[in-house]
Amino acid sequence: MNFQFEPFLTLHHVVIAYLDPGSGSLILQLLIAGIMGAGILVKVFWKRIKGFFTRSTEKKEDDTELQP
Amino acid sequence: MTPSSNPDEVIGASFRDPSGFLFYRQGVLYRQINQVYRQHYDQLMSSKLYARLVYDGLLIPHQEVDVAPADPAPAYKVIQPEPVRFISYPYEWSFSQLKDAALATLAIQKRALEAGMVLKDSSAYNIQFHNGKPTLIDSLSFEIYHEGDPWVAYRQYCQHFLAPLALMAHRDVRLNQMTRVFLDGIPLDLASRLLPARTRYGLGLATHIHLHASSQKRYADKPLDKAQTARKMSKLSFTGLMDNLEGTTRKLRWKPSGTEWGDYYTASSGHYSTTAFEHKKQLVSQFLEQLQPTTTWDLGANTGEFSRLAAEKGCNTLAFDIDPAAVEQNYRLVKQKAETHLLPLVMDFTNPSPSLGWHHQERQALLERAPADMLMALALVHHLAISNNVPLAWLASYLRELGHWLIIEWVPKEDSQVQKLLTSRQDIFPGYHVEGFEAAFGIYFNTLKKASIHDSDRVMYLMEGK
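Output (structure tokens, whole complex):
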């Protein structure tokens, strides 16, 4: 009996796995999210660097406006 | 849910989620929340996420009500959501409507994460246009976020939003109609095959569509081992993924101008003289004023010039057109003017949206979402009667099912537009004349008013269904 059922079970398993593309989605997500998270950090730092220079320019402009 | 033993009508689209379901009781829509969802619902309400999303117009407001649940055993609470005037589906949306629905989903996700929650699904069908804006209608879409967990709705976002948007932007805008066939979004391997090769070089689509499809194929028949499923994803990575999806979605663009249709509509009234066009507007306005309908469906609305006459009177108006470019232009205008009573939708009346999904009950046919108080069929009769060979009496019978009152424009055979339709085919329409029209429509409608349009051979009718 067991012997007879075995091929059926294996097939069943494969079919279910085939029908669910979730595994590949999960693996990819785990793989790329780390890189994209790092991307966020770069973005934040870049904004700060940009902000630092923009602020200092703004300050200069402000200063000039203050001078009569 | 056991709909059989009580008179409540359980909504056919909400059977999948064990968290709860929708039901109608005496014409009022309720949502039962089950005990299994209790802590998620409580977090949604207590974290102020609900209040914030409702304030931003991103989530449908609801009230907790003291109403007996439809299925008492698993029930926690019953809520009454604010009714959405018309349920529309992604295959009825133009490019920007789908894009705005996608961006709304991500905006909701961002706010949810700040409140320690995530969206557990990102189905495009959970978004509806409410007061002109894309709004989440499924209040049970949230679950408590556990740091380390990946986003369970990632694949669904790619299939429901990213794939159709990419196909529309990079291949052809009409590919949106694929969403009518693939109700759970476009399979990524199919999207990957259909997209042009150049989309493999931009980081976003290369990853979320092409690489995603390859990964699905690679692991399709390989069960994951424990080490793979146990891997964690930091909150930073989670945010990074969301940020990248948003950037990728934002970059997808489609412009109706420069297409084969686009220019036609800039000169939409070209076959009318100004006098005729203004008189037609005046007649439509008068008819609407006289009957004050609550809902109006404009069939063949182009960019919504006449639909706006109804919407501006506070009437909930749908502006249907077969052309995705016209609907796109109309929707952009709705956004620009912040209009709340006008919803443009893509619809081919020779093949209107059917009932779809499990038991044909998940997505409603257009006819099931009817009737409207008022129908407008302006410059439409000849398209259906001549281009699609629909006998006039059949057309009248269909329109009678769609709505109660009817403003209809008779376009005679001598009209230049009808002649254009007849140039490439034999005239097999001996019954297409004003007497035939009046006789056919007389079976289903009483004519309340009739007026010839100045400086034109067309006639306007105001009719009421028998």
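The radius of gyration of chain B is 24 Å.
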